[in-house]
Amino acid sequence: MPAKKRCQLQGEVRCNSAVLRLVGQCPHCRAEFCANHRMPEHHNCQNLESCRQQAFEKNKAKLESERTVASKMAMA
Fold first, then answer.
1. CA neighbours within 13 Å on the CB side: how many for 47?
2. Burial group, residue 15, by CB count within 10 angstroms (0-12, 13-18, 19+)
3. I want to staple 19 with a disulfide (CB 3.0 to 4.6 A). Which of 5, 9, 52, 68 is the partner?
């Protein structure tokens, strides 16, 4: 049997917990983490800020495209 994969948390103290099979991989940095460190906020993900910015821009564009214009409402 192959050895269990271990959490890839980089820090002062290395985490030796086993990686979660289904949700242990971070979608932003593609590293694998244990249950305690799987969230991007908990392992100081380097790509988190760019992901937030992309989501912000996407939501902003969607909201602006759905903006109600007063002239359209007057005709209805």
1. 10
2. middle
3. 5
pTM of the model: 0.55
Count of other CB atoms within 10 angstroms of residue 33: 26
- Structural domain boundaries in the chain: 1-65
1-65 topology per CATH: Zf-an1 domain (4.10.1110)
Minimal CA–CA distance to 8: which of 27, 34, 44, 36?
Answer: 34
Higher-confidence residue: 63 or 11? 63
Q: How far apart are CA 9 and CA 2, in angstroms?
A: 21
19-68 pLDDT, tens digit per residue, is: 877 777 888 888 888 888 888 888 888 888 888 888 899 999 998 888 76
